[in-house]
Structure prediction request, 370 residues.
Amino acid sequence: MTTFRELGITSTYSEKLADQGIKNPTKIQAQAIPLLMEGRDIIGRAKTGSGKTIAFLLPMLERLNTDAGSVQSLIITPTRELALQITMELKKLVEGKGINVLAVYGGQDINLQLKELDRVVDIVVGTPGRILDHMRRETIDLSQVSMLVLDEADQMLQIGFLDEAEAIIEATPKSRQTALFSATMPDEILSLTNRYLKDAHQIMVQAEDIVVREIEEYVIETTDRKKQNTLLKTVKDEEPFLGIIFCRTKRRVSKLNLAMQEKGFLTDELHGGLSQAKREDVMARFRDGHIHLLVATDVAARGLDVEGVTHIFNYDVPLDPDSYTHRIGRTGRAGESGVALTFIAPKDYATFDMIERNLNRDIPRKTIRI
Prediction:
């Protein structure tokens, strides 16, 4: 089996990964790292759970010029949560190395970010809106960026950030190295890659194999009237260490979270309607185990990687196969096992049948008696 050292990663970072229990590269890491180390542009089509974050962080760190005195690398993400997640991964890798990393995103006190930008920052991780804000204030200079990463590009398109992302790309040198990662490749993303990437090498890695191998999946048939009580009974039976419950809308998240708290469950909600301070507080308490269950929308939980998530509950059926894979990919991480349970009422049968056909597998049914 290939090792990180064989891919060109020095002991400095391979040992840091080993300390985190990461010994061997995933498929996308094995394919992307050598190309990025050579300075090639790449397009990575990979779903959640494939290990793409490490795939671009390691070459970025290996090729970083810490004597430059300016921003060398820029990572653009669609959501604040993903920006924070990547920043946490980076800080674990660069601890004690004298490399300065800064996350910039909306909802955070901009004066704190301005203070941070007064010192030399080597790597910036941020959302398009806040990066543009700093560019307009002339508090961030991207003229020396040598590596640019666009992560979850299809999600950027879905949220409506693609124009902002393009404006940021235009502010970086044409000589930069660019890596774009996306679970899907709609026409708008392909058009962007044609305009801004040079002789890009395409990598396609499917995460479905990971999902099948490490996650037990079940469907629980219920009715809209019985769904909440069926969920509560299932949670009691399953006794998750940490679990995420997915709902389709902010309103449904809040309603279910309140109902579960009234029943004595240690839950909280995560959705786009919360302030950034509240979202960060919720995530900190979830990671620390003070909350056992996170009730969330898809966008709020996109890109989250919390160690120890044992269960995913699809309270509302996802709208498409990609959303299903993204959701259940929050568990079964790093070789650990996980359980994903999807609650379907009669009105959901057609949607879920389409998901199963697309995944090319039937997901077993499980009966819950209430």
Observations:
- The longest strand covers residues 215-221.
- The CA atoms of residues 8 and 73 lie 19 Å apart.
